[in-house]
Specification:
Elements (H helix, E strand, L loop, with lengths): L1 H39 L1
């Protein structure tokens, strides 16, 4: 019974990391877009 619980726990953590990683990419993209707009102006 211990191995299934460990597997479920391991499956849960990567999902959270993916969500945070996706949010970081979005924030970086928005920041780059803002910088590009400033440079163009």
């Amino acid at each position: 019974g211990t191995s299934p619980s460990l597997d479920s726990g391991d499956e849960g953590s990567p999902r959270i990391e993916k969500c945070n990683y996706h949010q970081d990419i979005v924030s970086i993209k928005t920041g780059l877009l803002k910088l590009m707009r400033v440079v163009q102006e």
